[in-house]
Amino acid sequence: MAARILSERFYERDTLTAAKELLGCFLVRKIGRKTWRARITEVEAYVGEDDLACHASKGRTKRTETMYGEPGHAYVYLIYGMYHCLNIVTEKGGFPAAVLVRAVEVEDVPKKETDGPGKLCRFLEIDRTFDAWDVTRGEKLWVERGRLGKGEEIEATKRIGVEYAGHCKEYLWRFEIAK
DNA sequence: TGCCGGATCCTG
DNA sequence: AGGATCCGGCAA
Fold first, then answer.
1. Which CATH number fits domain A2-178: 3.50.30.10, 3.30.30.10, 3.10.300.10, 3.40.47.10?
2. Is the CB atom of residue A88 positioned under 7 angstroms from any atom of strand B?
3. For the segment 12-71 of chain A, residues whose CB is within 7 A of strand B
């Protein structure tokens, strides 16, 4: 059981690689006696200060400190005053990068409830108290190894909601499972 | 200190 | 198409 949990080593790599490999893996959230297993189906990569869409493009601040920290920790922020977004920090400590989890699927739960970054955080009860949370320990929130099914492929497209990011908005850094 | 806009979602 | 709703970052 514990062996399936993705370790710091998994995250301490090129962000695009880690992002793609997270597809098909399971985001696990334990709330009291209840354990949700959510299959990751869509992610986006945010890489370094040169990526104008990345929060770290404004440099090291209190908010982005987590992204500069150790890989395998959650970076959770509040967006539009009412929704939370879950990222997992990647690459070596000191280099700001993370993978945004944009959609998951939970068995017996309508897709509509978990098919957006804000929606999945609301469903899984993830808020800013999880910022900097270590997701490699298997406590409350972690990720387990998973894979693509037969016939499933990775589709790369532009990231959502980053029209302000100059040339970086063109990067095909959004990855989702396509059939 | 004040203002502006956002890695979203829902309603009309 | 627009509103909800609040915090971070920057200008003043």
1. 3.10.300.10
2. no
3. 44, 46, 53-56, 67
